[in-house]
Write a structure and sequence with these properties.
Layout lengths: L2 H35 L12 E4 L4 E3 L7 E7 L6 H16 L5 E7 L7 H9 L7 E5 L2 H11 L4 E5 L8 E5 L2 E5 L5 E6 L5 H16 L3
Parallel strand pairs: 3-4, 4-5
Antiparallel strand pairs: 1-2, 1-5, 3-8, 6-7, 8-9
Length: 213
């Protein structure tokens, strides 16, 4: 083999390794970062709360005791992240099957707009499931719940223009798994492509941990 041909061959091999590295190394780093940042542990206790569900009935944390439940934060007029968060929760529900020892709770971060009726309509697009509760309440109560009990950010900024009364709502896309004692055991980015499988796996681990199969 001539020096020129050998040089070309080495160049092609180097290019192949470069391409493989560009494709697989970022994925490996992403996987390692996900595993490092998203771990089952004992984090903090959510504490007691009482709000109103999509049926207009009082609903409290007492009704979740003994159940492993998934929490997320949405509002019905959101056209970006919230439908995706609801869809992610729907996929987790389907993955876990018809167990009655688990629950799913969506907290409205726009309770001024989200009446029980609006929440019920919002949920209808994702399929009926008696284990899925959507909650609303007084603005101050919801804000305190999200920021002080779930330890997540939630802000509302008035539009400020004369011809608009709109409020911009900034909230977390995190989804949290809470155990039967009301303790947060896991949380992750609700919009990540890994979210559904990760949450499904976490539920299965915590179900085994609880001794109920």
């Amino acid at each position: 083999m001539s020096v020129i041909m050998r040089g070309i061959l080495i160049g092609v091999i180097a290019l192949i390794f470069l391409i493989v590295g560009l494709v697989f190394l970022p994925k490996k780093k992403e996987n390692e970062q996900w595993e490092r940042e998203n771990k089952i542990d004992t984090y903090w206790e959510v504490g007691d709360f009482e709000l109103t569900n999509q049926l207009g009935e009082a609903f409290s944390s007492e009704q979740l005791k003994g159940k492993i439940w998934l929490a997320n934060f949405v509002f019905t007029s959101c056209v970006a992240e919230c439908p995706l968060l609801a869809q992610q929760m729907t996929l987790v529900r389907r993955n876990l099957g018809p167990r009655d020892d688990i629950a799913f709770v969506s907290f409205s971060v726009d309770p001024q707009t989200d009446s029980p009726e609006r929440l019920k309509q919002f949920a209808a697009a994702y399929g009926e499931d008696p284990r899925w509760t959507l909650l609303t309440g007084e603005v101050d109560t919801v804000t305190d719940l999200v920021t002080s009990k779930f330890l997540l950010p939630l802000t509302r900024n008035e539009d400020g223009t004369a011809d608009s009364n709109e409020t911009a709502i900034y909230h977390s896309d995190k989804m949290l798994v809470v155990d039967g004692n009301g303790v947060v055991r896991y949380f992750c980015d609700g919009l990540n492509q890994r979210t559904v499988q990760s949450l499904t796996d976490v539920f299965q681990v915590l179900i085994q941990e609880s001794g109920v199969y």
